[in-house]
TrEMBL record:
Residues 33-52 bind DNA. Keywords: DNA-binding. This is TetR/AcrR family transcriptional regulator. The keyword Cell membrane does not apply. It comes from the Bacteria. The lineage of its organism: Bacteria, Bacillati, Actinomycetota, Coriobacteriia, Eggerthellales. InterPro entries: Homeodomain-like_sf (IPR009057), HTH-type_Tx_Regulator (IPR050624), HTH_TetR (IPR001647). Residues 10-70 form the HTH tetR-type domain.
Amino acid sequence: MDNQYASLGFNTKMKIVEALDDLAQHTSFERVSILQICERADISRSTFYHHFCDKNAVLQWHASVIYEAGIDQIGRTLNWFEGHLLTTRGTERYKNLYYRAGHSTEYASIKPFYVRHRIDTLKETLTEYQNKPLTPLLEFQICATAAAESAMANRRYAGELVLPTKEFCTYMASIVPRELYNALKDPVHPHDDLPPFFLGGVW
């Protein structure tokens, strides 16, 4: 029953994400209303507010699901390239939504959220998974990496970086400063069950 409820909750949240994505194809993210989202998703306002407090929370939830399986695992179960590849593939379908939402400067909007999330996660991975000290240099490099990743991902969403996914992810890994890269390059519990097509082919 619990799994069924969780699945129903996830499916409802994804309906909301899809509705927001569809609406953002035709209007600015700021102008999309909760009422429009509810009508497009065929849900009540109470259902929306049961899951989310506002439309920024919708994108934060969606991004968190993707990050948890991708970039959050860098240094834990994935290396830099693998983490970026899973995250890039996960956001590709919704790149227009992320691009439009990325222009907002509100505290709860996706761009500041991404930077805060990355900083917190990288610090946690370094200290709690890799058991390494958070030196002033590494702390600086973590903040710089989070800001650079956010900027380059947004350029890809905007269509300014026309690169195959695999190449883009290689470049994303290359912008990480040397000390931080080396500190997290070897996952604590590396995946040994990645599908054979994961690292091959052109994405």
